[in-house]
Design a protein that fits this description.
By secondary structure, the protein is of the alpha/beta class. Helices cover about 45% and strands about 15% of the residues. A hairpin with a 4-residue loop joins strand 2 and strand 3. The longest helix is centred in the C-terminal third of the chain and has 24 residues.
């Protein structure tokens, strides 16, 4: 059996057969743990230590890992020997999941396409928007993240992901997030099929201005451009609403969903669109299969999706997300907001960002400059590493060279879990404001690694 007990040589296997640089990264920052079990919001390593997972598989595990109700549904589906992926057939489970999904959405959003991931959903949106409008251009935002396949990557705003993989799709144009004037300039040519935008940008946890999306909707309507809200990370209760766009009352023409849709068990993604858009794509009988996804409607994914939506409803997870997220946000503001390197705590529900910035005091300035000279954003790594190694909190920096630490925990944390987060951040951030100190010794080590990596890169390029 693949999960039988024996020698755990995962890092050696990855070094030999998968991504050796990932192994190198994990060992450099001390994240090379041997996890053996997961339950709810917790990970357990071989030593029996418990970690609070505030990364949640990049937002997949909104209801925690290995939820028993979803496990039970999957076991029953496997035992039923269902006729999955007949292809020349209409799946009952896919129909039921589509019906359940659209019940949470505005009535005009009533057609569903199932696929395997968020990035595949974005690829579908590009095709659907062009087919529906007859226009070529797709507009996206700076600092956006929409996936890593070449089509979706054409809409990504971070060069670290794009470098070396071009050329990308033609007709894709970036505008600044929260900049309505820039958006209108891009729309004025009336050649834009779609504006694809995250309601809250994942890379940085950047929130829109209060009137931004109402004006986006108005501008898209004025110039005949479809509006797609990419809710792959923000949807399904993550921000305290079913869709993050609901906070601003925006009704898009297309929505992408994935990540949490199966409770983290089976890869699944979805595009939900207005009926007329589907009618333009699938406009003749001979085009009934003009776009599809082999595994998109498989029985296990559909079963997991139905069970996950049921758990979300039964456990009132959306309300828990709003309540718990507000407690964490207010607690962090109260307990670390006083420190000079903390710029802002922001977010909605259980999608939170803590932004750091340059200090004013002389001694801390010296340390900050040392880190910045080596690599931008190292201060955040100087926070996340002790959070992990000392406090067993797993979280991430919200993007390359970012000054923001992002929290994406399960929506149903206990009060003890919330206290765990607040206590750990307070102690770690306080320690980072004493220079010199143990955390700054870590910072010096990180800076040294960054400088060495740059030298290695230059030698490789030279």
């Amino acid at each position: 059996m693949p999960f039988s007990k024996g020698v755990d040589n995962r890092f050696e296997l990855h070094e030999a057969y998968l991504n050796a640089q990932l192994v190198r990264l994990l060992k450099t920052i001390g994240f090379d743990r041997h996890y053996v079990r997961a339950e709810g919001p917790y990970l357990f390593d071989e030593a029996g230590d418990k970690y609070l997972d505030c990364l949640s598989g990049y937002g997949v595990f909104t209801m925690g890992r290995n939820h028993p109700k979803i496990k039970k549904a999957l076991v029953e589906a496997l035992a039923a020997d269902l006729p999955s992926m007949v292809q020349m057939d209409c799946s009952l489970l896919a129909g039921q999941l589509a019906e359940k999904l659209v019940s949470y959405l505005p009535s005009d959003l009533n057609k569903v396409f199932f696929c395997n991931s968020g990035t595949e959903a974005v690829e579908a949106v590009i095709k659907f928007a062009r087919a529906a409008t007859g226009r070529p251009k797709i507009i996206y935002c700076d600092h956006a993240f929409h996936g890593l396949t070449c089509g979706a990557l054409s809409l990504n705003g971070d060069e670290i992901f794009r470098d070396g993989f071009g050329p990308f799709l033609g007709g894709c144009e970036a505008v600044s997030f929260n900049n309505l004037e820039a958006l209108e300039r891009a729309l004025q040519g009336k050649d834009a099929a779609c504006f694809v935008v995250e309601p809250i940008q994942g890379k940085g946890v950047n929130l829109p201005d209060e009137n931004y999306f109402s004006e986006v909707r108005r501008l898209c309507d004025r110039y005949g451009t479809l509006l797609c809200m990419d809710e792959v990370q923000t949807g399904l209760g993550r921000t305290g609403k079913f869709l993050a766009g609901d906070h601003w009352g925006v009704e898009p023409d297309l929505v992408t969903l994935a990540k949490a849709l199966s409770g983290g068990f089976i890869p699944v993604g979805a595009v939900v669109a207005k009926k007329w858009i589907f009618a333009k794509v699938f406009d003749r009988m001979d085009k009934a299969v003009v776009h599809g996804s082999t595994f998109g409607k498989n029985s296990l994914a559909m079963t997991a999706g139905l069970a996950a939506l049921e758990v979300m409803k039964e456990e009132n997870l959306i309300a828990q997300s709003a309540e718990n997220g507000q407690k964490i946000k207010e607690g962090l503001e109260r307990r670390i907001g006083k420190y000079e390197c903390v710029r802002e705590v922001r977010g909605l529900g259980m999608m939170l960002g803590i932004e750091f910035g340059p200090p004013k005091s002389f001694t801390l300035k010296a340390g900050w400059k040392l880190l910045e000279k080596a690599n931008k954003g190292l201060f955040c790594q100087m926070i996340t590493i002790p959070l992990f190694k000392k406090h067993r909190i797993l979280c991430q920096v919200a993007g390359h060279n970012s000054y923001v630490i992002k929290l994406l925990p399960a929506l149903n944390l206990s009060q003890n879990d919330i206290a765990w987060i607040l206590d750990s951040f307070e102690e770690t951030v306080a320690a980072a404001h004493h220079f010199p100190g143990a955390i700054w010794e870590l910072g010096t080590s990180l800076a040294s690694h960054a400088v060495s990596a740059r030298k290695e890169l230059r030698a490789h390029d030279g």
